[in-house]
Each structure stands twice: as C-alpha cells, then as structure tokens.
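ok so for the tutorial part 2 we go from a plain amino acid sequence to predicted structure tokens. step 1 is just haveing the sequence, like this:
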Amino acid sequence: MGFSLSGMVINRAFNRDSNQVLETLGIKGFQKAGTVTFDEASIHFWSDEKIGIGFYGNGTLIFCGIALMTDEERLCIASHDCNILSFYINDNNETYCFDYFSKGVHVRRKWLSKTDEDVNKTGSMGKPLVFENPDEDPQEEVFNAIEKVMGQSFYKIAEEETIHEFKIV
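step 2 — the prediction. this is what the tokens look like for a chain of 169 residues:
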C-alpha cells in the first residue's frame, strides 16, 4: 500500500495559528473539529468538507480535498506574500502532481500519471523549479518539493504530531 495524499504546503508558519492559515486561504466558514495525529491524517485522501493543518519546519502543511488544492484563483490570491505548493500523490494509480504559486502567480504545474491520460493531457506549465530533478522518481520529486517549501522532510514528521482538523461549512 502506498501514499494517497492531497494538500499543500506554505513557506510560512503563521505563528502556529490555524485561523491565520484559513484566513490566508480565504476560508470564511469553518468549525474546529478536533485534532488527529499526523499518522492518521496522512493515510488517506481528505474530503472537500475538511481541512487539516500542521506546522513543521518553517512552514505549514495542509491536508485537504482535491477542490481546494486545485483552486488556482484562490491559491494565486493566497500566495501574494508567500509560496504555496499544492500536491497530489496517488501510488495506487501512479499519479503525481504539484502546482507552485508565488507572489500571486501560478508559476509551475507538473502533473504526471502512468495510468490516467487526462492527467497527462493537463501536463506541465512553467519553467522547472530549482529543486526539480527530472531523473528522480516522480513521487520523491513531489516529497522533495514539499520539503523545500515547508523546510522539513515529510518523512521526518513524527507520527504522533498534531494536525488541527476543521470542518468547512
């Protein structure tokens, strides 16, 4: 069994305040739903009705559904004073994607799938980022991009770390 993840990382820790993260993302209607461990948060895709927020390295890790992590307009607006990397990893169908936003601009898209031709039609946009390595395994390329933006390796986050869970209303 491999990874099935979607979310984003931001290169700011927002003083470890989840409300600031939600405000930056333009999410107005939300309710605190509790906490889960990093291990619980990272084993499945999240629905579009929930969002999980954790603070690691010098950044923020967000678990969310596909709708939020692919909302280009929202992420352009949110990235006016930070860098945002949205990501999708699905080992089951070998699909690996990321989009990078900086200074209000969608700078880079890199989508690759070994099984989904629609993903491949979306393809890539923008110049490769300095941390991209075309010779690297696509999954590892996404995880390395997460580390570069967040400032900490995804693999080094302790399983018992706290993810703050919110319901979007």
